Amino acid sequence: MSAQQPDLEWWKTAVVYQIYPRSFQDTTGNGIGDLNGITERLPYLADTLGVDAIWISPFYPSPMADFGYDVSDYTDVNPLFGTLDDFDRLLSEAHRRDLKVIIDWVPNHTSDQHPWFITSRSSRANPKRDWYVWRDSKPDGELPNNWQSEFGGPAWTYDESTDQWYLHSFLAEQPDLNWRNPAVVAAMLDTVRFWLDRGVDGFRIDVAHYVMKDPALTDNPIAQDPGAMGTFKPMGPFNVWEHLHDRGHPDVHGIYRHLRAVLDEYDGDRFAIGEIHIFDWDEWALYYGDGDELHMPFNFSLIWAGWDAAAIRNRIGALEAAVPEHGWPNYVLGNHDEQRLATRYGPANAKAATTLLLTLRGQPTIYYGDELAMHQTDVPPDREQDPWGIRVPGLSRDGCRTPMQWAPDPGHGFTEASITPWLPFADDAMERNVETQLREAESPLSFVRRLLELRSARPSLNRGSIQLLNGLPDDVLGYDRSHSDERTTVLINYSSEPREVPIAAPCTVLASTHGHRADIETTTVIMAPHEAVVIEPAGD
Ligand code: NOJ
Questions:
Q1: Spatial strand order in the sheet of 16-19
Q2: In this structure, how many other beta carbons lie within 10 angstroms of the beta carbon of residue 496?
């Protein structure tokens, strides 16, 4: 079933599945998922679903101020999630099933409990002082500059005992490393080697563009047009500023050339994808380098495009124009920071959105549970966990991080019946779960399985070129995917009305969001509201 083919690097044809480890499978009965839980579910991922790679969000030792994105040891496993032996077993079991394993790497900041920061903070004179970004107050006693934390409030915290401020682009518990210090570069690249030596296939790099800032720490200007300033969603007071100087300094590219050189020392096409929220396509594409930096910067452009044929068409066109010749595109419609796609686009559009994700050109990443069309859950205030939501009301990410819904029983196959999971289950978990959906031929899960099978079987889908179609009715997006003499056409109706789409008949219908469709013998496809179809055009 795997789409991996020997003539292309594995990551080009792979479909990646993101696992938020706290929420995937609990095997210890504490209401929190763990590594052994992931290992237990590998048959689901490799065989039932049929993805090619998993990306596991952080499982390192961490005080969990930001649920693992505050790392206190880059080369171990948090006891909450298991042990290094558990990780090694997960990796070898995944490899036995031809699944690649990508892990999260968090280079911009550590936890404030990381021994490096504890030492750095201990005195101005200690050798690790310069591993982080420390500054004096301005002469008037003010903060070193006007930079803001993404999670609200100033990006500086005052340390009384050494009378200086340290920089944290996120929580105060996540101090930024000083990547201008060669000792930091060396130590962090050693953490990469540690996991490469164990056999991981790649890294997802957290806020990859943040690691280099303006060395002069220049104030950010006020944003002229907050909507166009490089964020994809409203981010509260953070949007007041244009983030010109606090991230994405051009020196960042030297770091990724260095990282790439390390990856390339290893066999097996080790891979790096960077989380990069940059709206300017030219600047975004620089992270591909000359094929000597990241294999890919994540493309989040569809997440906030809205469910609109013209907007999505524009973004696909812009991406295709931006990706350099030596680059490879990717698409993502959901992750642990964003509202679930079934809620963002509306439940009626969930299958069509998945069709889009799995039939565009490039590497797709599926967020766990989106194959069930899980919706955003309303987490009551007394169960709220996300530090961002607690600091900036309205921005909580808890609703997309609720436990995976495996079965129609009280623990939903995630945990034991008597256990309260770390976040509540969605209210429809009794009906919306893997076990139930596997029994239903037209469930979201059965549909995703069919799409993944098609994608794997058809080179036009897993590696072919893309051509956006012209002359379609408003609200219909269409594209052709081609590889040698194979062609696949995808049509998506974004409206809640039927649409008539002219087509060269006859066509074989490979999949429809709306269940079985006879092959098309006429020169018009009547598309149902919210329908997506995948077809093999006439003559192929
Ligand atoms: C981006 C991660 O995806 C998010 O979950 C995290 O809170 C921030 N980076 C800080 O590490």
A1: 296-297, 271-274, 202-205, 100-105, 53-56, 16-19, 363-367, 330-332
A2: 12
Q: How far is the CA of 332 from the centre of ligand 1 (A)?
A: 16
Q: State pLDDT tens for residues 372-428.
A: 999 999 999 999 999 999 988 888 999 999 999 999 999 999 999 999 999 999 999
Where do runs of H (alpha helix) occur along 210-273? 252-264
How far, in Å, CA of 353 to CA of 345, rounded?
A: 8
Per DSSP, helices labelled H in 168-290 are: 182-198, 252-264, 281-285
Q: What is the spatial distance between Cα 200 and Cα 88, in angstroms, rounded to a whole number?
A: 9
| Predicted local confidence at residue 4, as pLDDT | 47
Pairing mode, strands 53-56 and 486-493: unpaired
Residue 291: CB partners within 8 Å, gap ≥ 6? 326, 327
Cβ atoms of residues 371 and 362 within 8 Å: no
Q: How many CB atoms lie within 10 A of CB 115?
A: 12
CA of residue 57 to ligand 1 center, whole Å: 10
Kindly give the distance from the C-alpha atom of residue 174 to the centroid of ligand 1, in angstroms, as a whole number.
10
Beta-strand runs (E) in 362-475: 363-367, 465-468
Query: Do 476 and 501 contact (CB within 8 A), yes or no?
Result: yes
**Contact between 67 and 121 (Cβ < 8 Å):** no
The residue contributing the CA closest to ligand 1 atom 5 is 337
Measure the CA–CA gap between 302 and 269, rounded to whole angstroms: 27
**Ligand 1 centre distance from Cα of residue 256 (Å):** 19
469, 480 Cβ separation under 8 angstroms: yes
Straight-line distance from the first to the last Cα atom of the chain, in angstroms, rounded to the nearest whole number: 23
CB 467 within 8 A of CB 479: yes
Q: Whose Cα sits closest to atom 10 in ligand 1?
A: 69
Ligand 1 atom 8 nearest Cα? 69
The beta-carbon contacts of 407-416 under 8 Å, at least 24 apart in sequence, are: 407/433, 407/434, 407/435, 407/436, 408/433, 408/435, 408/436, 413/25, 414/23, 414/24, 414/25, 414/26, 414/33, 415/26, 415/29, 415/30, 415/31, 416/26, 416/29
Atom of ligand 1 nearest to the CA of 336: 5
pLDDT at 279: 83
SS3 437: helix
- The letter for the amino acid at 115 is P
The 10 Å Cβ neighbour count of residue 370 is 24
- The residues, ordered by sequence, that sit 6+ positions from 189 with a Cβ below 8 Å of its Cβ are 258, 259, 262
Tokens of 269: 């096409």
Residues with CB under 6 A from ligand 1: 66, 69, 106, 170, 206-207, 275, 336-337
How sure is the predictor about 226, in pLDDT bands with cuts at 50, 70 and 90? Answer: low
Burial class from Cβ neighbours inside 10 Å (0-12, 13-18, 19+) for residue 48 reads: middle
What residues are labeled active site?
206, 265
